[in-house]
Amino acid sequence: MAGYKNQHFVQKAYLEGFAAKELPKKWENTPAIWVLQKDTGKIRLQSIEKTAARSHYYSFRNKHGNMDPLIEKWFNPVEDAFPRLRQHIRDHIMEINLTGTASNLDLRYKRLLAEYIYIHIIRVPSIFDELKQQSIAYQQKASNEDGIPYDENHAQVLALRTMIRIGQAPGMSIVDILMKRSMDVEFFPRTKVAIATSDAPVMMYDETRAAGLAYESTSVFFPLDSAIMLRFAEFGQWVRMLKRREPKECNLLNELVGIRANNEVYCNNPNTLEQIAKKLGLETTIQTIPQRE
Fold first, then answer.
1. Cα separation, 186 vs 57, whole angstroms
2. Is residue 292 part of a domain?
3. What average pLDDT does this structure show over 230-256?
4. Residue 222: beta bridge partners?
5. Which of 6, 28, 110, 128 has the fewest CB atoms within 10 Å, counting from its CB?
6. Please, are residues 228 and 89 in contact by the beta-carbon 8 Å criterion?
7. Of 232, 178, 223, whose CA–CA distance to 205 is shortest?
């Protein structure tokens, strides 16, 4: 189970789409990312391996005293498909840039993206921390009341079942709701502004202040990499590829990333993070590039 010790609550392969560029030679073999901490205003460079990750974050201790990564393994099939999925969309965009047109994006790719977005709604600390605590507390209470020896692995199974139920209730699943919405793939091929992401990468926005995916007025944004933003908007089955040229459009999306972030914003360069911090009213300090971790 040693390979499951360092567990990312934002997938490592996903963060590599926002990896820092133009790094000194001492960092060239270490995938790294620029990080803005909202609570301190500090902007620093760090390895992706150590970003959005905690030791045994999703693991529970089993009856043998070992850390059991059942939940982390449950993420694996969707996570393993993501790098190929993102590359398929990048290839689609390349075809548009070269020829001016492209075949329609298959709806099965839209479903895979919807599944990936779903697990990034339920796995982040703002959701999972409370869920894990409640699962452990429930099992401890049941053990005390029924006189059954406490088994933390039962709490893990309860947490996993709850995560699955979150995706299914009420009525349609989160994935099905996303599938019923139009999906815009917005890409920024010629702007110098990079798209950022955060420790809460799935963002919901509604100008009417209604709450939840069930409202048609709620849009769901998900940064795919430093040049592509996904937007699930009004109800409809179509997928649109939209080329964006105005830096201000990217800046507005990045401002939303900063607002919705729990505490950390990630990007491939410090200047974009500095602009986001300014929009948030934060005083920033940019750390000089450290030696490789």
1. 33
2. no
3. 87
4. 230
5. 28
6. yes
7. 232
171 falls in which pLDDT band (50, 70, 90)?
A: low
Domain that holds residue 277: 2-286
To which H or E segment does residue 138 belong?
A: helix 125-146
Domain count, the chain: 1
The H or E element spanning position 134 is: helix 125-146
Whether residue 291 lies inside any domain: the answer is no
φ/ψ (deg, to 5) at 212: 110, 155
Q: Identify whether 20 is part of a domain.
A: yes
**Cα–Cα–Cα angle for 108, 200, 162, rounded to 5 degrees:** 70
CB atoms within 10 A of CB 29: 8
Checking 61-65 for CB contacts under 8 A at 24+ apart, the result is 61/152, 61/153, 62/151, 62/152, 62/153, 63/151, 63/153
Q: What is the pLDDT of residues 257-273, one digit of tens each?
A: 999 999 999 999 999 99
Q: For 194, which DSSP code?
A: P
Assign 230 a pLDDT band (cuts: 50, 70, 90): very high
Average pLDDT for 12-39:
90
The radius of gyration of the chain's CA atoms, rounded to the nearest angstrom, is: 20
What single string gives the DSSP state of each residue in 219-242? Answer: EEEEEEETTEEEEEEEE-S-EEEE
Contact (Cβ atoms closer than 8 angstroms) between residue 184 and residue 242 = yes
Task: Specify if 116 maps to a domain.
Answer: yes
Asked if residues 48 and 16 have their Cβ atoms less than 8 Å apart, the reply is yes
Between β-strands 181-187 and 239-243, what pairing exists: parallel, antiparallel or unpaired? parallel
Question: Tokens 């410090």 appear where?
Answer: 270
Whole-angstrom distance, CA of residue 252 vs CA of residue 87: 25
